[in-house]
Amino acid sequence: MERLLVFDLDGTLVDSAPDIHAALNRVLVARGLAPYDLPAVKAMIGDGARVLLERAFGGRGQAFEAAALDVFLADEDISQARLTAPFPGIAPAMDSLAEAGWRFAVCTNKPEGPARALLASLGLGGRFAAIGGGDSFPVRKPDPGHLLATIAAAGGKPGAAVMVGDHRNDVRAAAGAGLPCIFAAWGYGPHEMAEGAPIAAAPSDLPRLAAALRG
Ligand SMILES: O=C(O)COP(=O)(O)O
Ligand SMILES: [Mg+2]
């Protein structure tokens, strides 16, 4: 059976925090609120754009405004890579996985439109059999339904799939869907979020770990 590696996007495939940081701070500063530093923003990523803004506004003692989410998502930095790039080693790791017969999908809590645009702007869009965004299905990670729907959209089978992600939401979605997850140590989540999942120190570990999980 054809094996499918399902990548999380922000913090796993691409280092998008610098662009998210810049766009978020523009929204805050335009409203007279203090900006955040990059590590603080990395710690707020993982549950989608709306929750990111709720956390950022909440941290400044302000209620979330729906209008701010529209401004944030319309910011070019969210969908056009300016500071964003694939993490070092991702491209060669995908090349060797593809040679070993793996196909790829993306399961991200970022809304699907910006996720697709971002991957296209990096020249990566064509590498994925499916891109499941945070608003593509009725549920999103950590709900396993998001991962299962993405696998189905890719024409894959959960029994031949592996998730790779940098957040507890990725680990829990995979556990709920009954498939293994590799935790990406290069991402934004602290290692405790692996919750016992095998940890890849670098993308170059992925071919070996994925093969061990679905040999
Ligand atoms: O947009 C987010 O908060 C998280 O996105 P991810 O699921 O690709 O990490
Ligand atoms: Mg992530």
From TrEMBL:
<comment type="similarity">
    <text>Belongs to the HAD-like hydrolase superfamily. CbbY/CbbZ/Gph/YieH family.</text>
</comment>
<dbReference type="InterPro" id="IPR023214">
    <property type="entry name" value="HAD_sf"/>
</dbReference>
<protein>
    <recommendedName>
        <fullName>phosphoglycolate phosphatase</fullName>
        <ecNumber>3.1.3.18</ecNumber>
    </recommendedName>
</protein>
<dbReference type="InterPro" id="IPR036412">
    <property type="entry name" value="HAD-like_sf"/>
</dbReference>
<comment type="pathway">
    <text>Organic acid metabolism; glycolate biosynthesis; glycolate from 2-phosphoglycolate: step 1/1.</text>
</comment>
<dbReference type="InterPro" id="IPR023198">
    <property type="entry name" value="PGP-like_dom2"/>
</dbReference>
<dbReference type="InterPro" id="IPR050155">
    <property type="entry name" value="HAD-like_hydrolase_sf"/>
</dbReference>
<dbReference type="Pfam" id="PF00702">
    <property type="entry name" value="Hydrolase"/>
</dbReference>
